[in-house]
Amino acid sequence: MKSRRIVRDQSGMILVLALMMTIVLTLIVITATETAVFETKLSGHKRAATTAFFAAESGVQAASANIANFNVTEKYVGNKYDPFTDPNNLNPTNTKVVIELETSQNGPPRGTGMSAINFEFEHFMIASTGQDQAESGLPKSTCTVEEKVIRLIPTQQGGY
Question: Which helix (H) or strand (E) holds 99?
Answer without folding.
Answer: strand 96-101
